[in-house]
C-alpha cells in the first residue's frame, strides 16, 4: 500500500551516470560557439561579447544543483521505455532524445530562476550572489534569454514536432504563471483567489514537470493513456513540490532554504498558507489585497499564519497531490526500480526540509 510504503528504492546506476554527465553536457551546449561566431575574428567585439554571455549563462550551472527535474524526467523515461520495449534485460533504455528532454527541463528551469531573481530583486541564491547582483538586471535578462535560446537548439535537435510543441508549452506557461503572480485582481472572492493561486502554481511550477514527463512518454512510443498518466504524474508532483515550498517559507530557517524566511510575504505574495489562514482570519484579506505593503503587514500576516490552521491545511493539500502522483506511478507496468523511485520521490515531498 502506498500510504504505508517506506522509501527503499535506489536510482538505477545508469541513470546516476546520466545525471553526472548532464550538468557538463548543458555547460557544453552553452559555451559551444555558434557557426557565425566561429567565422568572426578572435578580436571581434561580437565574439568577446558572446564569450562573456556564455560565462554568465553557465554561472548557476557551475554551482551545481539538486537536478530534481531531470532526475524525474530520466526516471519517467526509463519507466516508459520498459513498457514499450518488451525485450528489456536491465540495460539503459533511455535514448538520446529523452536525455535531451532532461537537459532542456533543467535549462528552462535555470533560465526561469535568472529571470525570477530579476523580477524579485534577489541578491543571493543558494548562498551565492545572483546573476543580477553580479552583472546587473539588464545583463541578467539577456542571460536568461540566452539559456532559453540554447535550450531551444537542444530541443530542435530532437526533430519531433509534437514533442517540441509539448516542451514549448512550458515556456508559455512560465510567462503566464509569472503574470498571474504579479497581477492578482483585488476584486477576487476568496474561492476565486485560491483558484487563481492553484492555476498560477500549475503554470509556473507544475507545467515543467508535467510536460517533460509527457514528452519522454511520447518519445518512448507510449499510447495516449500512458502519455496522459505521465503528464498527470508530473502535474501532481509539481503542485505538491510548490505547496511544500510555500509551507517551508514559514517554517524553515533562511540558512536551510538558501533564501530569507517569509520571503514570499516580503515580495507581496499570498501563497497557500496565507489563503487558508484568511478563511479563519478575514482581516488578512485587507493585507493580501495591498500585498503586505504597509509597515507591520508582513509581521502581522506571519504571526496570523503561524497561529492558524493554514500550514496544516497546506500540508494536507500537498499530501493529496503526493498520493495522487504516487498512485499514477504505481500503475506503470515497469520492471525495475525506476517506477519505485517515482513513487518515492512523490511521497518524499512531505518530509522535505529545503
TrEMBL record:
<protein>
    <submittedName>
        <fullName>Uncharacterized protein</fullName>
    </submittedName>
</protein>
Amino acid at each position: 500500500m502506498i500510504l504505508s510504503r517506506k522509501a527503499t528504492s535506489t536510482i538505477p546506476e545508469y541513470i546516476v551516470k546520466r545525471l553526472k554527465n548532464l550538468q557538463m553536457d548543458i555547460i557544453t551546449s552553452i559555451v559551444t560557439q555558434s557557426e557565425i561566431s566561429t567565422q568572426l575574428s578572435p578580436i571581434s567585439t561580437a565574439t568577446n561579447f558572446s564569450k562573456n554571455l556564455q560565462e554568465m549563462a553557465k554561472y548557476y550551472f557551475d554551482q551545481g544543483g539538486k537536478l530534481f527535474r531531470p532526475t524525474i524526467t530520466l526516471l519517467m523515461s526509463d519507466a516508459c521505455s520498459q513498457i514499450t520495449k518488451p525485450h528489456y534485460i536491465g540495460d539503459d533504455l533511455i535514448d538520446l532524445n529523452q536525455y535531451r528532454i532532461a537537459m532542456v527541463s533543467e535549462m528552462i528551469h535555470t533560465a526561469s530562476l535568472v529571470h525570477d531573481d530579476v523580477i524579485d530583486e534577489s541578491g543571493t541564491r543558494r548562498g551565492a550572489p545572483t546573476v543580477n547582483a553580479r552583472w546587473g538586471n539588464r545583463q541578467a535578462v539577456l542571460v536568461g534569454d540566452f539559456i532559453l535560446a540554447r535550450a531551444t537548439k537542444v530541443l530542435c535537435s530532437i526533430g519531433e514536432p509534437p514533442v517540441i510543441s509539448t516542451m514549448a508549452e512550458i515556456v508559455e506557461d512560465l510567462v503566464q504563471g509569472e503574470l498571474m503572480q504579479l497581477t492578482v485582481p483585488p476584486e477576487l472572492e476568496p474561492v476565486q483567489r485560491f483558484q487563481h493561486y492553484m492555476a498560477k502554481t500549475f503554470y509556473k511550477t507544475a507545467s515543467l514537470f508535467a510536460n517533460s514527463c509527457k514528452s519522454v512518454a511520447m518519445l518512448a512510443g507510449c499510447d495516449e493513456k500512458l502519455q496522459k498518466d505521465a503528464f498527470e504524474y508530473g502535474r501532481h508532483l509539481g503542485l505538491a513540490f510548490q505547496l511544500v515550498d510555500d509551507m517551508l517559507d514559514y517554517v524553515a530557517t533562511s540558512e536551510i532554504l538558501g533564501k530569507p524566511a517569509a520571503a514570499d510575504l516580503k515580495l507581496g505574495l499570498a501563497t497557500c498558507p496565507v489563503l487558508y489562514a484568511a478563511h479563519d482570519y478575514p482581516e488578512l484579506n485587507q493585507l493580501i489585497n495591498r500585498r503586505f505593503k504597509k509597515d507591520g503587514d508582513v509581521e502581522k500576516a506571519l504571526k496570523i499564519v503561524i497561529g492558524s490552521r493554514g500550514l496544516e491545511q497546506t500540508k494536507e493539500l500537498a499530501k493529496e497531490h503526493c498520493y495522487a502522483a504516487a498512485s499514477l506511478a504505481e500503475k506503470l507496468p515497469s520492471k525495475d526500480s525506476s517506477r519505485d523511485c517515482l513513487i518515492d520521490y512523490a511521497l518524499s515531498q512531505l518530509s522535505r526540509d529545503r
